[in-house]
Design a protein that fits this description.
8-stranded mixed beta sheet, D-Amino Acid Oxidase, Chain A, domain 2, 31% helix, 20 strands, globular, 432 residues, 24% strand, FAD/NAD(P)-binding domain, binds flavin-adenine dinucleotide, alpha+beta, 13 helices, 3 domains
């Protein structure tokens, strides 16, 4: 290990104990570095983001938690059932169709338990995990990253010096806010309203716990995600302009109204009993102008998040935490912590596409060309850098969506009127 003149309390600090932070901390710990992780809350704590992708299995193996995740008996996810609001059309996204992933079957998790497993694994590889500790400020000197940390247990604020910081503070965005790096995604200004329910019937057949994704007749959509034997996470996502039209009263009333005017969801929820208060999340779609700088690197939602529609968040958070650790390990070997950069992922086209009626018409059409749909499923299983052939077929899919804009290739399943609430392009806003 290369030594500099500065003295450090630890090699690295990680701010945030979600999947990105713990993945980065575990990976750094596995390489023998001294690491401290600060988490604002005391675990277990609630978090939304419950449905994983096939590629999460690679992260579990790398982090040494595959057996523990399996032993936790989380509901198995083999794919996604897609429905239109009236159930007249729909399809199955089958992850076993994907040849480019190591293991197709993944899970849907109760985040309290899932995040705790990762946090305990960090402790096990030697990370100094400090819960109830809020990183309230950070500074970057030429040879040190300096953190001020407020700890709840003794109400004291401490200064910690490290070689570099992984910012995994999620939407809080410690560094993104400090350096004003965030840009909103104008086409994804959505609001999510959700809760956990019992009494929602599982799917029939051999894969009862797959996620259900229901497109409303307007621009909104529902998720139904089993997260334990009893609990079903149920939520609706609405573009802001549509939300303003529907919202009238409390969040619970808005959610209930959205349920009752989406026929197939109303049917699923006939016997449902709500077990938690209804929660609302908004302003969750943004990117960053840069993902690494002098003695800092962003991982997971602290850098960017697009939209929950394809359940990408946690799997990407783990991947980016592992990548951040590899980047910092290389930087330490070279004793060079100048700006390092992650490869930019290109998922935006799919997510933004979902909020257009033409994409939905093609996506939900009863008979899409098999080969093309299979290539789409490869991306949706989390394989962001697929083979050239799969990329070509994905271009063909978006070609069909473009044609649908001019000619009706397939039945028009979704409303086009201005009140359907589809977002329209406007200039991106930089967030302070
Ligand atoms: C409505 C909705 C539905 C979603 N559904 C899914 C889904 O089905 N599947 C999926 O994969 N993803 C989903 N996501 C996304 C998912 O929630 C996130 O992408 C994922 O949690 C990101 O992990 P992370 O570790 O980057 O951040 P987080 O999980 O948010 O973790 C950040 C941690 O940092 C801590 N923290 C914050 N600030 C500080 C600080 N200053 N000091 C110390 N600690 C701090 C927080 O307490 C938190 O524990 C959804 C998101 C939304 C909004």
């Amino acid at each position: 290990m290369t030594m500099t003149k500065a003295s450090y309390d630890f090699d690295f600090a990680v701010a945030g104990g979600g999947p990105a932070g713990t993945s980065a901390a575990i990976s750094l710990g596995q390489r023998g570095h001294s690491v401290v992780l600060f988490e604002r809350h005391t675990f277990p704590r609630f978090h939304i983001g419950e449905s994983l992708l096939s590629t999460a299995n690679d992260a579990f193996a790398a982090l040494g938690v595959a057996e523990r995740i399996e032993a936790a008996c989380f509901p198995e996810k083999w794919g996604a059932r897609l429905y239109t609001h009236d159930a007249r059309s729909g399809r199955y996204v089958d992850f076993t169709d994907v040849r480019e992933v190591t293991r197709p079957q993944t899970y849907q998790v109760c985040r309290q338990q899932f995040d705790q497993i990762l946090l305990e694994r960090a402790r096990e590889v030697g990370v100094d995990v400090r819960e109830g500790c809020d990183v309230i400020a950070c500074e970057f000197a030429p040879d040190t990253a300096i953190l001020d940390v407020a700890c709840r247990v003794d109400a004291a604020t401490r200064r910690v010096r490290v070689r570099a910081l992984v910012d995994a503070t999620g939407r809080g965005g410690l560094i993104a806010r400090k350096f004003n790096l965030r840009t909103e995604e104008p086409l994804l200004a959505n609001i999510a309203i959700f809760s956990h329910y019992t009494g929602v019937p599982r799917l029939e057949g051999p894969r009862p716990d797959d996620i259900r994704l229901i497109a409303r007749s307007d621009a909104g959509w529902f998720w139904l995600i089993p997260i334990s034997k009893e609990l079903m996470s149920v939520g609706v996502v609405l573009p802001k302009q549509l939300y303003r039209k529907l919202a009238n009263g409390s969040a619970e009333e808005t959610l209930n109204r959205a349920i009752s005017d989406t026929p197939i969801v109303a049917e699923f929820m006939r016997e449902a009993r709500r077990e938690w208060p209804v929660r609302v999340e908004k302003d969750f779609s943004y990117s960053a102008s840069t993902y690494a700088g002098h003695r800092w690197i962003l991982a997971g939602d602290a850098g960017s998040f697009l939209d929950p529609v394809f359940s990408t968040g946690v799997s990407i958070a783990m991947e980016s935490g592992i990548e951040a650790a590899a980047e910092l390990h290389r930087a330490l070997l070279k004793n060079n912590f100048s700006a390092a950069n992650f490869a930019a992922f290109s998922r935006r086209q799919f997510v933004v596409g979902f909020y257009t009626p033409q994409f939905r018409d093609v996506f939900f059409s009863p008979e899409p060309p098999d080969l093309i749909f299979r290539s789409v499923v490869t991306i949706l299983a989390g394989k962001w850098n697929p083979s050239l052939w799969t990329r070509f077929l994905n271009h063909m899919f978006f070609g069909l969506v473009s044609i649908q804009k001019r000619f009706n290739l397939t039945r028009l399943n979704f409303r086009r009127d201005p009140d359907a609430g589809y977002p329209t392009e406007r200039a991106p806003k930089t967030r302070a």
